[in-house]
Design goal:
Layout (H helix, E strand, L loop, with lengths): L2 H13 L2 H4 L2 E8 L5 H13 L8 H4 L3 E7 L11 H9 L13 E9 L3 H7 L2 E9 L2 H5 L8 H11 L6 H9 L9 H20 L39 H23 L6 E6 L1 H7 L1 H16 L8 H5 L7 E6 L10 H11 L1 H9 L3 E6 L6 E8 L2 E9 L5 E4 L9 H8 L33 H9 L4
Parallel strand pairs: 1-4, 1-5, 5-6, 6-7
Antiparallel strand pairs: 2-3, 3-4, 8-9, 9-10
Protein name: YcjX family protein
Organism: Paracoccus pacificus
Pfam families: DUF463 (PF04317)
Length: 466
């Protein structure tokens, strides 16, 4: 690093001193496809602006939060999270679920807070800025590619591919490919297209580990060479510079250096609080293989974090560490509340390895079952003379339905053991899933959207800074 670069770093650190007077919390929100990131952020902001349902957030319950308002986000080159559009979609006259995350976006919410205690009385109110950063979980999975070369990544992908949708078609296509043959763009595009189709089908079927993530959400990079490669068998000894294998290797390396690394540097490495949203119920419904795939994917995701508490000097100079990580099992409103503790226990067990690693590094972690927007009501139904705890809601086609998804096991090992052992199906039958639409409602003045444990989630994530 040159002297000029060091001077720039120091000046950036000095400039960040302003954050000591108006402190900023940078909260990252991620999760895999359909985990509910957009709904979570919209509900978080709405319930901090109107705090009538936030009894579990101490600063809201005791009146320490005097006011909250939206401001322009500090990063002018990052799209704004379209909060107003998403809130109208979720709570309008004809509510519907908003579109999912397609790229990085950001929103700043400022909170006017009166600190407690003797010193707080002397200081008066202060402003705490909450910068919420939304990014696709599929992109986060790519961070672990930084530690793998093309040969390692190809071997891992091909090893876990059997059993996934369209896997046989892709492997059959590879059987006719000579990796040592001279590269042609037509063949490269055909192979990459077949692999991308397999990734999309796997994601839609409930699989979690689908890399490279940008293949599923290419944006403006669609069709670029950095997104036109695929896993191949081990490198042949006679694979020359112009071979298909060497060209795919080069493009894989370009993907890491030109796509993954900038994302880490510009967005991910600056986060100091993190939410990881997990659709556990969807994985359970998809079967044991999907549960094991999700467990491995989430463990890999956590290796990309930099957990632990940063010292004051590191904070001054701009170094960040993820201090708190919340693992949230979403769609808790698909279960009666009596099963919520079991859902939390399953998530905790799924993430045990990754969570222990974060705890060991000094970060505080928590697992929780939540629903960012509650779409159901609870009731008890009778079936074969037995009373069952169920939920009622409106399906996407407008019909009313009552759901009893089955009883989650009290011991998470009843799910995780057969998943690890490669069981083809659950011995005790399937676990039902329904797609409920948001419920039409009229919010009272001062109340945010109805939720399950969003107040407790926010208390864990930022309560100490309020």
């Amino acid at each position: 690093m040159g002297l000029g670069d060091m001077a720039d770093d120091v000046m950036r650190g000095v400039g960040s001193l302003g954050g000591w007077f108006d402190p900023t919390i940078r909260l990252g929100v991620t999760g895999l496809s359909r985990a509910g990131k957009t709904v979570f952020i919209t509900s978080l902001v709405a319930n901090l602006l109107d705090r009538g349902r936030m009894h579990g957030l101490k600063a809201a319950a005791n009146g320490s939060i005097r006011a909250a308002w939206l401001q322009p986000q500090p990063d002018d080159t990052i799209p704004r999270f379209d909060y107003e559009k998403y809130l109208n979609a979720m709570t309008g006259a004809h509510p519907y679920w908003p579109e999912g995350t397609r790229s990085v976006s950001e929103l700043r919410l400022s909170l006017r807070v009166q600190p407690g205690g003797l010193l707080g009385g002397f200081r008066g109110p202060r402003t705490v800025n909450l910068d919420v950063v939304d990014y696709p979980g599929e992109w986060l999975l790519d961070l672990r590619l930084m530690t793998k070369d093309y040969a390692e990544w190809s071997a891992e992908v091909l090893a876990r591919m059997p059993g996934r949708p369209l896997a046989e078609e892709y492997l059959s296509r590879l059987a006719s490919v000579d990796p040592a043959a001279r590269y042609t763009e037509t063949e490269a595009q055909e192979i990459a297209g077949a692999y991308t189709a397999q990734l999309a089908a796997a994601r839609d079927a409930g699989w979690s580990d689908c890399t490279p993530g940008r293949f599923l959400m290419p944006g403006e990079m669609a069709g670029s060479p950095a997104l036109t490669f695929a896993p191949l068998p081990p490198r042949p000894e006679n694979a020359g510079r112009s071979s298909l294998w060497r060209e795919f290797q080069r493009r894989y390396d370009a993907y890491k250096s030109q796509v993954v690394k900038p994302f880490f540097r510009e967005h991910f490495a600056r986060i100091d609080r993190q939410v990881v949203l997990v659709d556990v119920l969807g994985a359970i419904h998809a079967g044991p293989a999907a549960v094991e795939d999700m467990r491995r994917a989430m463990a890999d995701i956590l290796t990309a974090f930099r957990p632990g508490r940063a010292g004051w000097l590191a904070q001054l100079l701009g170094a960040r560490r993820v201090e708190r990580i919340l693992f949230a099992a979403t769609k808790a409103d698909h279960l009666n509340h009596v099963q919520h503790p079991r859902l939390t226990n399953i998530l905790t067990a799924m993430l045990r390895e990754a969570r222990d690693r974060a705890d060991f590094s000094g970060a505080r972690t928590e697992a929780m079952a939540i629903a960012a927007l509650r779409a159901t009501t609870e009731e008890t139904i009778r079936q074969d003379g037995e009373e069952l705890p169920a939920v009622r809601g409106t399906l996407l086609d407008g019909r009313q339905a009552v759901l009893y998804p089955g009883e989650l096991p009290a011991d998470p090992a009843a799910l995780l053991a057969p998943a690890r052992e490669g069981a083809p199906a659950w011995l005790d039958g399937d676990y039902a899933v329904m797609d409920f639409a948001p419920a039409a409602r009229t919010l009272k003045p001062g109340d945010g959207p109805p939720h399950i444990r969003m107040d407790k989630a926010i208390e864990f994530l930022i309560g100490d800074r309020l």
